[in-house]
UniProtKB/TrEMBL annotation:
One Pfam entry name: VTT_dom
Domain VTT: 23-142
Organism: Aureimonas phyllosphaerae
Protein name (database record): Membrane protein DedA with SNARE-associated domain
GO cellular component: a single term: plasma membrane
Membrane-crossing residue ranges in chain numbering: 12-34, 40-66, 125-149, 161-180
Keywords carried by this UniProt record: Membrane, Transmembrane, Transmembrane helix
Length: 189
């Protein structure tokens, strides 16, 4: 099932979940759906913002109350976690507002922020403002450029077999590269 078909079939609930866990792609496609008249613009912005807000609150709570749980410990071992904490320490309010706009920081950052001393109410207020801004930016991008995006996807659909082959080949090459890297690391250890 494609993101487009999920949005068409399930509408706003799909956007809520997708915006929370996938992010920008869903918000932009939701904007395209609003452009096409499938969904209303303002309900789409509201639901995308709520999905993003809710996911970040859940991740923040994981960092705040489940610091010693295996999930949080596994996340905290990633290099992005240390980078997120470092960026937070330099500019806590700016980082808390802007992490969702930086690739790679979306899931790790609210968990990292949850492990800091930032008051929960302050995070909630910043998260509301950031999620609203994020939803407006990405849903609007899909809405404003909807015609062009629909045209591009229309051209891509006619070549879907070639695209599936290319994506499959890239996944295979990537998997083999990761396997080879892992083997090389084991041999060197």
């Amino acid at each position: 099932m494609t993101i487009e078909s999920l949005v068409a079939q399930y509408g706003l609930p799909a956007i809520f979940l997708g915006a929370g866990f996938e992010g920008e792609t869903v918000a932009i496609l939701a904007g395209v759906a609003a452009h096409a008249g499938t969904l209303g613009y303002w309900p789409t912005v509201l639901v995308a913002g709520l999905g993003s807000f809710t996911a970040d609150q859940i991740f923040f709570v994981c960092g705040r109350f489940f610091r010693h749980a295996q999930f949080v410990r596994r996340i905290s071992a990633r290099p992005f976690f240390a980078k997120a904490l470092n960026a937070f320490e330099k500019r806590p309010l700016l980082f808390t507002f802007g992490f969702r706009f930086v690739y790679g920081f979306r899931t790790v950052s609210p968990i990292a922020i949850g492990t800091t001393q930032l008051p929960t109410l302050r995070f909630v207020l910043i998260n509301v403002a950031a999620a609203t801004t994020w939803a407006l930016v990405f849903v609007s991008a899909g809405f404003w450029f909807g015609h062009g995006i629909e045209t591009i996807f229309g051209h891509l659909r006619s070549h879907h077999r070639l695209l599936v082959f290319i994506v499959g080949a890239l996944l295979l090459v990537g998997t083999l590269a990761l396997w080879a890297r892992h083997r090389w690391t084991l041999v060197r250890s």
